[in-house]
Description:
Elements: E1 6-13, E2 16-23, E3 26-30, E4 32-35, H1 47-52, E5 58-61, H2 62-67, H3 71-76, H4 80-84, E6 90-93, H5 96-102, E7 104-109, E8 112-116, E9 123-126, H6 128-138, E10 142-144, H7 156-176, E11 184-189, H8 195-206, E12 212-215, H9 224-234, E13 244-246, H10 252-259, E14 265-268, H11 270-276, E15 279-282, E16 285-288, H12 308-311, H13 315-324, H14 327-354, H15 357-374
Parallel strand pairs: 4-14, 5-6, 6-10, 10-11, 11-12, 12-13, 13-14
Antiparallel strand pairs: 1-2, 2-3, 7-8, 8-9, 15-16
Amino acid sequence: MTQAFSFSVLATDGLARQGEIHTPRGAIRTPAFMPVGTAATVKAMFVEDVRAAGADILLGNVYHLMLRPGAERIARLGGLHEFMRWPYPILTDSGGFQVMSLAKLRKLDESGVTFQSHIDGSRHHLSPERSMEIQDLLGSDIQMQLDECVRLPCSESEAERAMRLSLRWAERSRKAFRERPGRAVFGIVQGGESKRLRIESAQALAGMEFHGIAVGGLAVGEPQDVMLDMLETTAPHLPESKPRYLMGVGAPDDIIQAVARGIDMFDCVMPTRAGRHGLAYTRHGRVTLRNARHADDPRPLDEASSCPAARDYSRAYLHHLVKAGEILGMMLLTQANVAYYQELMAGLRAAIGAGRLADFIAETRANWIEGESAL
């Protein structure tokens, strides 16, 4: 574990970048989509299958892991990589978003946030220092500052309050980060829908010696055009030599549009959550397996997919499993979705390298429209 964390841009196409993040646990090809392993598991998948689908990195969640089974326990058991049998890179979020969205009776102040667990009502305090301590105990390769994420729309005054608090927490998180060979810490841009605040946040974080910068507080209720406008505003103020991570995104169309605006990393529960609820993402668009129209359909989800779940099982069988509530249906559709997202990222990387990103995006969107209109 002596290799340094680094990022290389290998090719560009407009604002889009094709690159590679280097870590002691392996390279992360960018643009990258990180499957979400909230509680030390990508729901309904074996980690071997996540890797086989093409994932270079997973995301773990501080909030859930600190509550159950506990960061200190995971550390005693060898760290998160050993605990979940994933020897490749892991990024952990700071826990702040989940505190705001899941916890009971939370109270925010300058020191951090005090909250009651949504599991058993126990009380906890999460500060920037404690968040970084938890991430160090977990042993994650990329760690995130603690920030406050406000839901949109919100007033500019509320967005400014949260942004300035997040900047102060960023300074404390960076100071509390325990430097170890190959590990990195990212700052998080906030600022709601305000261009002024987004620019100020990005410029301040760029001066704090983070290893990468994330854009937070988007895909939280605002229309896509607002999200893209904020990316176009923010990206020019982020260091070109460091990875850019759009947190919590998301939908395939959001991803390809964000890649075209210079974003390198993504995560979202969408592919795994959709798979557990009978929805598949494919080259031909979304397929809702609950619909009766699939009951007699012998076609696979995608005959050209490299994923057995998408290629080898009929829509009729998948429809049956979903309607019957069989766990296998959740597993197969989750596997198919994770594989599709990784195939999409591979296609984006290849298109940037070949200088044909605009054509790839147009073809991808046309396939979605054509496929969904035929269903």
